[in-house]
Amino acid sequence: MKKVIDNQLFLWKLCFKTCPGYMIYHLYDGFRYQGVIFIEHVLGIRYVLHCAEYHEPFWKALLYIGIVFLVNLIQIIPDGYFIHGWSYRSKPKLYRALKEKMYEKAAEIDLSCYDDPEYYNDFVLAVAEAESSIDRFLLMCNRIVQALTILFTTGVFYLMTDWIGIVFVFASFVLRFLVSRIINKLNYDIRLKVNPLERKRNYVSRVFYLNDYAKELRLHPHVGDRLEKEFEEANDEIVEIQKKVGLKRSLLTFTNSYMVGDFVMDVLYISYLVFQAAVLHSIDYSNAVVLFNRTGSLRRGMTDLADIFPQAQENSLYIDKIRAFLAYEPKIKRLEGEAVPEGNAELELNNLSFSYREGMEETLKDICLKVKPGEKIAIVGYNGAGKTTLIKLLMRLYDPSSGEIRFHGNDIKAYKPYDYRSRIGVVFQDYQMYGASLKENVVMDCADEAADAEVISALERAGFGERLKSLEKGLDSAVTTEFDKAGINFSGGESQKVAISRAFFKNADILIMDEPSSALDPIAEYELNKAMESAAKGKTVFYISHRLSTTRDADRIILLENGRIAEEGTHESLLKLGGKYAGMWKVQAGRYE
Fold first, then answer.
1. What is the CATH number of domain 2-191+254-327?
2. What is the pLDDT of residues 502-521, one digit of tens each?
3. Cross-sheet strand order for the sheet of 402-407
């Protein structure tokens, strides 16, 4: 119970801090709504029936009805504004407040979190349920106030008229509370089982509607057939999971709806009222009618309270996921540590080893390497040799399992990761284009503060100059059609040039090029190599490429094999060695000779 309350308080603090006026009125709205109903449907009906039963003048009943009408008329105006205006403006603010916290945390969490399926499942569930958790919480707050208002007003009326009715309602409340708790726990357990299967279904859906997969699906229709089968299997598994609990859920729902609700109140209590009014004459007919009429409201109030805690418990389980995600403390904290000294410096890798998970085979094993400032290092090797992993460690996206990386003579763990990474310009093999302007895609920061001339220069050095001149809106051109119909979907080679321009624009001490020319034609590759020569003066450069023509001019070539440095030297020295690099070169060069 403590955890459930703590989780609801977490959302209350977030919501109240974001929209305090809205939250106060949201609670008041529940009180106002049920207060007016009590005046109209309890006191009003009772007074009118009392006038009829005891032959009071008609104008008394009419006067009371007129007063109730005026009260309703007055409260409709703020109620309409709250429902149709205020709520539509405030809810997006509440969603934003929570989502911003989650997006900030998503940018901080260690990259290793994405390698953990269990954590990633919880992460996806937390993001998916963020807005729904707020919706459920708001509804719950309003229902609590409504339920308490019903219980207070109707409870006082029962105590003054016939307190036995409260016993019937309370019995129904306790039974419903217990059954509702079982039902909500069952629903949550099913949600956890179904979540990975829904992720699989959503993945298949994305494949069929995203532009990225459209060409391949048409060229390889059997892939689509296989995905459809995966969708069907996941769907069938969801159906099976639901079928297993179908009978149990039906029995629980029947028990909750009829046995502890309709039977106790509509059968037993009504029989009691008829006996009191018609046989014993201990209750006025007007009071008996109102008590009979109000049992439904009192039962709903009790039922709502009975359902509130299980619902709060269910919502708490999702909030737990959100809070656990927000509470995660990254091992690599972006802003903790010392500032990185100015200027370039030697990079030193001492006995570096790394495994993605404890107990797994090491991807890198005992790597030792010294790189002088301004040196150009090419890292080559077959797929799975550990090239990209080494680069991720250099960028401190992961920390090594053992060993260290030193820059300016210090272990890079001593520096603020944010500062250290700002000294690195990188082109990832799996770079991404964003639904933003071309300028923003180059700057990757606040583009308003960047000079257009510097952005244009970076694009030109990356070989994008001619394409830029053809764009009607220039740097303001929208990239992708995600949010702008007039947006541009650049070709693979053009997109790669934009990605390369990011590294040129950053003007960092260390440049990392992970397959920078994989989507470029030979002439564009040649021009890129020339641009790199001028852009990389005084900078330390790491190339990763399967195209050895890109790496032949490097100061040193490192060949990785099974996570170890197998060969090291210049292009000429490695050819003379006649080892694996020479073999790779002969295979590639032989195609042109």
1. 1.20.1560.10
2. 888 887 889 888 876 665 66
3. 364-371, 347-354, 402-407, 410-411
